[in-house]
Inverse folding.
């Protein structure tokens, strides 16, 4: 927590003079938001509760996904290890041979790899990140009492929950969940004969993700409508915090790209269940010719990556917004290049629709067409770099409080730089020919959209935890969590670049057939060991999180970080409706630190007579 | 330092050169940005006396350093694009007119099937010779343009010859034609790079690159059905 200097004015007194108070006026809002246990904690329409539901569901999935990654890392690092002790948890997924030595069955190795990817991309880094913080922060930061449609918002969470339940059920099928990689390329995903997981597991996987997309669309519609229509008096678009800008653009990207994915999934379902041939042609499985003629598997790849690439920006943009906000507040310094930040968010959002086929350079797509995708891929590096420069300049000549959220925000920038730069290699088609489907790709996207997005998420959780739960998380545990995580993450993913350059393909169950790859056994063991270290750090985080909800240090001030945005003008635990009295009125942009001699000027403080609102 | 597998095809060196060019640019970018980041963290750590600056980059004078960074990155982008274009064209867009050897290579769960033209020298005729077994080795001549028709009979596979920097998907229902010319003899692994089912990591064949004479001898044995 930031050390508090003497305030140059009394915020509480100021708010009182302006007619704000901390008591609900029953005649105004008491009737509108009835509260019972079920409507408060389960079928809640309060955006703050829905945000917490997203967060906790996302965390549960993060642990399932991370647990799977540990098991398949064990297989990769220590393929000869006896895994029979996992039988109580994983049951038939562990094969026991005649000598009593247990090993992971290859079918379930692929199932774990697939489910790890699916749940982390969709359930954790889309729903858990964007769902949590868009819901929590949009109404609070723009000065609205709730989302435009609280009911659709509730429905959005419960569709996500339904998707979660279906995905969870698929883990318990006898034939296992879907196992054909998270991208689910047909024909492997279309033909039950091709792989064990492509039977019932694949049907459930598709149904789950279709419901998930419904959830994303309901949420996204709400975020967009709320930002456009429910901004409080004085909150012009150029006064929105960068968090809200990033959530807004993220929601627009999601609304434009997720329906394409659903179209792709529906065609795949038709191929699977009704015998159509959208993606299938000229196939012989086990010597038997299939009747499918005329389809193309490439069509699916185009539909999938038309979402797939915007999806990585759907994941990273909210993290970027959170990091901008956290950095400015904890460096006590106006964000550098506010308008450049907004324009680069919009530019990234726009360009993200023009680069999808860089995932398909080896797919037999017209090579001439590839040139355009190379061009746009290299161009999208420019707005991304602008954001990096702006963050660094925000730190330059600031007064940097190395609080836990600040540490994670800095970690985010470091990962975004390292991961972004390896994107330059993959964006160049000739190099991608060598790197495609190797560990270089795995390293690249885990650093730039996996770990980086997680760091943005952690920065947000530590920063807004006092606002969410009225208590602080333990800062010492938080710092240990940070250092263990950043070291483990670099040690897991940095060596993978070398594996990739040497041509080690991803999604291999074992390397023992290949003399060339056995030289990397030690490297694989190191990676696995650090994966365990990283996982342990997350257990620490989970403990800190849940312990602090009940026993953390209580928040005594209204605005503990001396931040400028509107959420800190609402009382802690304000109940449904956010501001008990009048809604705050906005007079300035959100990053007035050290202006006219005062440490900070919240957005609801009117301009001095001689002051201009410049940004 | 060479972290790549040995480069054995005619375009492999060009790709490696491009890789190191980007490494140069990316390395510069990495050290400069991380350098300033770490400097700022040390130099501007919290102190009660410090007055943080309030410049916010809303004038060109303040924004010019970021603009310079943007310009440098855009320059690097276009330089790389310019450099990359020839390599890409050579690898992908222009299959050589002169096909010294034309082979069909077909993926199936879980090995590669090779179809050699028969004694008439033409592929897709009745006398084609098919080699269809796991771990088999095929032979090709060195310093010759070898053209592959890449296909699949079941799911998507991906032909990967890492020493040759050669990787293309095998798509059912499509024939994708790519070429390669080896300039170093040896036995190279041909593996599958696209998840194709449960034995994906066991899918492997070999390519033996050897002189024209030895290759011809092997081909004659193949036609006679006497090689092992």
């Amino acid at each position: 927590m930031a050390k508090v200097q003497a305030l140059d004015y009394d915020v509480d007194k100021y708010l009182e003079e302006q007619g704000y108070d901390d008591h609900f006026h029953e005649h105004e809002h008491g009737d509108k938001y009835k509260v019972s246990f079920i409507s408060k904690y389960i079928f809640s329409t309060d955006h703050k509760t829905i945000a917490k539901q997203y967060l906790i569901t996302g965390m549960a999935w993060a642990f399932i996904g991370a647990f799977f990654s540990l098991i398949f890392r064990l297989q990769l690092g220590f393929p000869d290890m006896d895994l029979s002790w996992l039988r109580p948890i994983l049951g038939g997924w562990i094969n026991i041979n005649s000598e009593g030595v247990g090993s992971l069955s290859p079918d379930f190795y692929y199932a774990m790899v697939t489910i790890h990817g699916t749940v982390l991309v969709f359930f954790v880094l889309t729903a858990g990140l964007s769902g949590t913080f868009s819901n929590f922060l949009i109404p609070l930061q723009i000065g609205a009492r709730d989302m435009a449609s609280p009911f659709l918002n509730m429905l959005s969470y419960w569709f996500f929950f339904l998707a979660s339940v279906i995905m969870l059920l698929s883990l318990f099928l006898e034939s296992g969940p879907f196992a054909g990689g998270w991208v689910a390329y047909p024909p492997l995903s279309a033909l039950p004969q091709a792989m064990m997981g492509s039977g019932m597991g694949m049907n459930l996987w598709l149904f789950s993700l279709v419901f998930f997309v419904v959830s994303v669309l309901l949420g996204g519609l709400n975020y967009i409508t709320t930002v456009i229509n429910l901004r409080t008096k004085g909150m012009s678009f150029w006064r929105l915090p960068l968090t809200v800008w990033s959530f807004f653009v993220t929601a627009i990207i999601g609304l434009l790209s997720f329906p394409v994915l659903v179209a792709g999934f529906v065609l795949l379902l038709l191929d699977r269940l009704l015998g159509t041939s959208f993606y299938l042609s000229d196939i012989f499985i086990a010597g038997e010719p299939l009747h499918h003629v005329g389809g193309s598997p490439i069509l699916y790849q185009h539909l999938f990556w038309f979402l797939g690439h915007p999806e990585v920006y759907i994941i990273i943009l909210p993290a970027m917004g959170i990091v901008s906000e956290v950095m400015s507040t904890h460096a006590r310094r106006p964000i550098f290049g506010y308008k450049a930040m907004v324009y680069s968010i919009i530019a990234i959002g726009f360009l993200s629709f023009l680069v999808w086929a860089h995932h398909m350079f080896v797919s037999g797509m017209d090579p001439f067409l590839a040139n355009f995708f190379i061009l746009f891929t290299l161009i999208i590096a420019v707005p991304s770099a602008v954001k990096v420069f702006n963050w660094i300049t925000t730190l330059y000549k600031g007064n940097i409080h190395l609080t836990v959220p600040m540490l994670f925000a800095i970690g985010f920038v470091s990962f975004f730089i390292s991961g972004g730069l390896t994107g330059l290699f993959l964006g160049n088609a000739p190099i991608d020919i060598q790197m495609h489907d190797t560990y270089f790709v795995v390293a690249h996207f885990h650093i730039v959209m996996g770990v980086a997005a997680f760091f943005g998420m952690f920065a947000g959780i530590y920063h807004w935890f006092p606002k969410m739960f009225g208590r602080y998380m333990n800062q010492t545990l938080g710092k240990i969590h940070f250092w263990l995580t950043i070291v483990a993450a670099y040690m897991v993913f940095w060596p993978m670049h070398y594996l990739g350059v040497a041509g080690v393909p991803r999604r291999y169950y074992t390397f023992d057939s290949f003399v060339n790859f056995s030289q990397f056994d030690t490297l694989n063991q190191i990676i696995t060991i650090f994966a365990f270290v990283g996982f342990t750090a997350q257990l620490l985080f989970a403990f800190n999180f849940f312990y602090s909800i009940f026993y953390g240090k209580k928040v005594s001030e209204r605005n503990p970080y001396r931040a400028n945005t509107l959420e800190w003008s609402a009382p802690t635990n304000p109940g449904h409706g956010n501001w008990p009295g009048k809604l705050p009125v906005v007079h300035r942009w959100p990053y007035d630190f050290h202006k006219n001699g005062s440490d900070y000027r919240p957005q609801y403080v009117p301009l001095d007579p001689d002051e201009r609102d410049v940004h | 330092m060479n972290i790549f597998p040995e480069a054995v095809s005619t375009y492999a060196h060009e790709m490696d050169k491009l890789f190191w060019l980007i490494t140069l640019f990316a390395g510069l970018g990495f050290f400069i940005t991380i350098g300033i980041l770490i400097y700022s963290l040390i130099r501007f750590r919290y102190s009660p006396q410090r007055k943080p600056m309030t410049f916010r980059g809303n004038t060109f004078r303040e924004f010019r350093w970021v603009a310079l960074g943007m310009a440098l990155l855009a320059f690097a982008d276009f330089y790389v694009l310019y450099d990359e274009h020839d390599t890409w064209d050579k690898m992908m867009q222009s299959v050589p007119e002169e096909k010294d050897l034309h082979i069909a290579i077909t993926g199936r769960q879980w090995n590669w099937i090779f179809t050699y033209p028969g004694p008439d020298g033409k592929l897709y005729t009745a006398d084609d010779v098919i080699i269809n077994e796991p771990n088999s080795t095929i032979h090709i001549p060195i310093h010759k343009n070898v053209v592959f028709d890449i296909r699949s009979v079941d799911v998507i596979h991906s032909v990967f010859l890492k020493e040759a920097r050669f990787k293309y998907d095998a798509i059912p229902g499509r024939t994708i034609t790519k070429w390669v010319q080896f300039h170093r003899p040896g036995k190279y692994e041909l593996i599958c790079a696209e998840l194709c089912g449960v034995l994906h990591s066991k899918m492997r064949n070999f390519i033996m690159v050897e002189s024209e004479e030895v290759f011809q001898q092997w081909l004659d044995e193949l036609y006679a059905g006497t090689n092992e």
